[in-house]
Design a protein that fits this description.
By secondary structure, this protein is an alpha+beta fold. The protein contains three helices and six strands; from the N terminus they run E-E-E-E-H-E-E-H-H.
């Protein structure tokens, strides 16, 4: 079975192209995926993974995805190789996306800051009402 699920952020806006032979739309972007463990005294490392989308999923990518947005991609890993004009052989490993889901939270008007503003979302107001019994100080175990 060949299945991968990745959670990460786009490093730049997607690149949209068309295959010459079939005129199929192709969306390409790089996903920065943080590694789980951080060595003490070092910064968190990330892997930069090329994602490829086709047809309707490429339309979605073109319309909704942009640099910095966090998404979850599920798909399959594919390897290929090609020879350039100088005769050098190149090997490529990429993920062919089958599904893409948003993983970002709502942001305030200044999207460049990355600050999250949850104060005015109806979802948060509803969750506060539904979980009111958990926020009462008398019910907390400490």
């Amino acid at each position: 079975m060949n299945k991968t699920i990745l959670l990460g952020r786009l490093t730049k806006d997607p690149d949209i192209r068309f295959l010459q032979a079939t005129n199929t739309k192709v969306g390409l972007f790089t996903l920065a995926v943080n590694r789980k463990y951080v060595k003490p005294g070092e910064e968190r490392q990330a892997d930069f993974i090329t994602i490829v989308t086709y047809s309707k999923l490429a339309d979605f990518v073109e319309k909704y995805l942009k640099q910095g947005i966090q998404i979850c991609v599920s798909g399959k890993i594919q390897t290929r190789n090609y020879e350039d004009s100088n005769g050098n052989k190149h090997y490529v490993t990429e993920v062919i996306a089958e599904e893409i889901d948003f993983a970002d939270t709502l942001k305030n008007n200044n999207e460049d800051t990355g600050n999250i503003d949850k104060s005015n979302t109806s979802e948060d107001k509803n969750s506060i009402v539904e979980n009111e019994e958990l926020t009462n100080d008398d019910d907390l175990p400490f």
